[in-house]
Amino acid sequence: xxxxxxxxxxxxxxxxxxxxxxxxxxxxxxxxxxxxxxxxxxxxxxxxxxxxxxxxxxxxxxxxxxxxxxxxxxxxxxxxxxxxxxxxxxxxxxxxxxxxxxxxxxxxxxxxxxxxxxxxxxxxxxxxxxxxxxxxxxxxxxxxxxxxxxxxxxxxxxxxxxxxxxxxxxxxxxxxxxxxxxxxxxxxxxxxxxxxxxxxxxxxxxxxxxxxxxxxxxxxxxxxxxxxxxxxxxxxxxxxxxxxxxxxxxxxxxxxxxxxxxxxxxxxxxxxxxxxxxxxxxxxxxxxxxxxxxxxxxxxxxxxxxxxxxxxxxxxxxxxxxxxxxxxxxxxxxxxxxxxxxxxxxxxxxxxxxxxxxxxxxxxxxxxxxxxxxxxxxxxxxxxxxxxxxxxxxxxxxxxxxxxxxxxxxxx
Length: 412
Fold this sequence. Notes:
Blueprint: H1 21-26, E1 36-37, H2 40-43, H3 48-63, H4 65-69, H5 75-90, E2 97-100, H6 103-113, E3 121-125, H7 130-143, E4 146-150, H8 159-167, E5 174-180, H9 193-201, E6 205-210, H10 221-224, E7 228-232, E8 244-248, H11 282-288, H12 296-299, H13 301-310, H14 313-335, E9 350-355, H15 360-371, E10 373-374, E11 377-380, E12 383-389, H16 396-409
Parallel strand pairs: 1-10, 3-4, 3-5, 5-6, 6-7
Antiparallel strand pairs: 2-8, 7-8, 9-12, 11-12
Helix pairs in contact: 6-7, 14-16, 15-16
């Protein structure tokens, strides 16, 4: 008998019964009641109905693992169903994306596939995620390539200032441009379009870290013209942990080598139109079918998309954006410290808020120990940052508590 996964149950967050929209949505999540969770940006949070679908896939796998993991008996089609659903959110074709476990894994696949040589340059900025800085350092050590780090002018207030700063870093040795779309430490939306267009004109590969973008800002990867792009589904799309995507422009998918060689790999030519081991392209089969793994998180991505649509997420996101920006504005008024950017370059639902210099670990611990507030605090280039993320389950009272706590602990 065919097993069926759980179905998404929609609860209208605009309903008048049961409290305000944030309170109603909070009931749909698994976040502990005794934690004020203002750190969605780190690992996301999966809604209860989507998590139940995820568990349904896992149960289906355990009840008949041979049938489940056989590409010809369902897995190949299920994996494609997820790609098709996600491609609509990304502005591309399902054949241009593949499921991976995290954006970091996807970006490592790209970094390890590009054939760099001694003297080649990897152009990047001083706002990148630390794990990926290590990835490119590793690649540079192995290949003899050199990392060139551009300092982005701060505060970020114009597209022209960003573009000119990055393009000035290009030389005749530049082979790769690696940029975040939304930065992790500073929560800025980089205006990357002009840089990508100019890099394409000069024959430079563009590799974009989109860990924070999917479900956070609108994406049109085909229109963007980017070569390589990786992003997470478990953050702002709110799919289960272990779901992410890698996009590669179709004309250059033949450049990609899997990090793991397994059943999906084929010795066939990777020329256009070639088929992989399971009938997809070599790009998809080589990356998707890499030995035994639990694909339940990836297979739940369509249900995360359905949850957002059923809960009118554009309206939720607007409320979250207003709360994020008003909280940052109120804190800036108390500290007298300028924001890191003008509003158009700040991520809608995530903001890096400067506070007076202090021990960031002590402040972070104080917020948790004394107020049960989960939020990252760190030093970035001599500035102490409190990075606030606001998702649909957060409310104004929680942000008020954060400001109260910072006033006491940071002596504002």
